[in-house]
Amino acid sequence: MSTAPTPPAFSGSRLGWGDLPRDLRTRIQRLAGAEVVSESTATNGFSPGFASTLELGDGTCVFVKAVAPDLNPLSPTLARAEVHVNRLLPPEASAPELLFADDDGTWVALGFAVVDGAAPTVPWEDAELTLALEAVARLTRVPAPSGLRDLREMTGDLFTGWGRLAQDRVDLDAVLEALPEHAAWLPAALPRLRRWEEDGVGATAGDRLVHADLRGDNMLVGTGTGGRRVWLVDWPHASAGSPVFDVVGMLPSVAMSGGGAAADVFARHPGAEGMDPRDVRDVLAGIAGYLVRSAVQAPPRGIPNLRAFQLAQGRAALDWLRVLDA
Questions:
Q1: One domain for residues 246 and 320
Q2: For residues 66 and 50, what is the distance between their CA atoms, to the nearest angstrom?
Q3: How far are the Cα atoms of 6, 99, 236 from residue 309, in angstroms, in the given order?
Q4: Cα separation, 14 vs 50, whole angstroms
Q5: Domain Aminoglycoside phosphotransferase, which positions (predicted)?
Q6: What are phi and psi of 198, to 5 degrees?
Q7: Angle at CA of residue 81, ends 78 and 86, nearest 5°
């Protein structure tokens, strides 16, 4: 099976502090408790808008994200979901603390405690990948707090890629052209891929805390109490469900970022122990279908390279899926 070059880790459009509306800057400084004296813009992630660590006049720092619908129409909805989720997260989630939020109906801003960490090295270093897998394994044991949606609400919409491709020859041809190494296998496999993705929705039922968007760019590796550790960030999709979604869903991005074939990483994943192989296959089929179909759609506003990122993950997901289908 082949792998693709890693696309850029960040493909959105970042704003600077001076690009934000004056009244928003005033509110952020009031909530932070001091004036901003400098900024350091984040270079990872996919949300268009503002994302910077702000140094304050009192010597402290805060990480602030701010989005508006003219940058991307879905970003404010996701930001509001992130505020809701972060107010519910237990300490075991390993998420930076939400310090404040501001929403004027157009701009949504979130302020987080700054943690001593940085995005994982690309390609993945084995020591950092081990820390990340251990963090995911710990998350599989965390009960979902009350107030989160059922993960099946998301996967019911998400796990429809193969069904849609079966009904749209133009998109299917685009996928076959984009993934020539899978072009001979995919058409004959399509009926069972549709069946597996449908079964995958039920396989995501559960009562654990699920991040539902785990990738390297949603992690920070650094130092905390007790030594090296990983923080999990960007929680707008968090749900109550089965840990199989996080364990399986992260590995295509690991593979496309040089961390090893997804099937091999899964075999040593401390969070994978005891998972039903059929659930793994069915959830993987749902994720793969979403990724490859999304990859041949027009790019969303403000995120021009997202489709290349999804295609690279989709390729890695299909590499793994074909191992399971052998």
A1: yes
A2: 5
A3: 8, 31, 19
A4: 5
A5: 76-276
A6: -65, -45
A7: 125
187-211 b/e with 16+ CB inside 10 Å = b?
A: eebbeebbebbbbbbebbebebbbb
Comparing C-alpha atoms, which of 165, 155, 133, 144 is closest to residue 199? 155
- Tokens representing residue 97 in the block: 């603390």
- In the chain, the number of structural domains is 2
User: How far apart (Å, rounded) are the C-alpha atoms in residues 93 and 116?
Assistant: 17
Determine the structural domain holding residue 203 and report its residue range. 118-324
Contact partners, residue 71, CB within 8 Å, separation at least 6 = 13, 15, 48, 49, 301, 302
42: tokens are 């984040």
**How far is the C-alpha of 131 from the C-alpha of 142, rounded, in Å?**
17
One DSSP character per residue, 176-234 reads: HHH-GGGTTTHHHHHHHHHHHHHHHHHHT--SEEE-S---GGGEEEEEETTEEEEEE--
Out of 73, 95, 114, pick the residue that ends a domain: 114
pLDDT digits (tens, 9 = 90+) for 27-62: 999 999 999 999 998 877 677 899 999 999 999 999
Contact 79, 236 (CB under 8 A): yes
Same domain, 105 and 141: no
Tokens 């400098």 locate to: 38
**Segment 241-298, tens digit of pLDDT:** 999 999 999 999 999 999 999 999 999 999 999 999 999 999 999 999 999 999 999 9
- Yes or no: say if 260 and 254 are a contact pair by the CB < 8 Å rule: yes
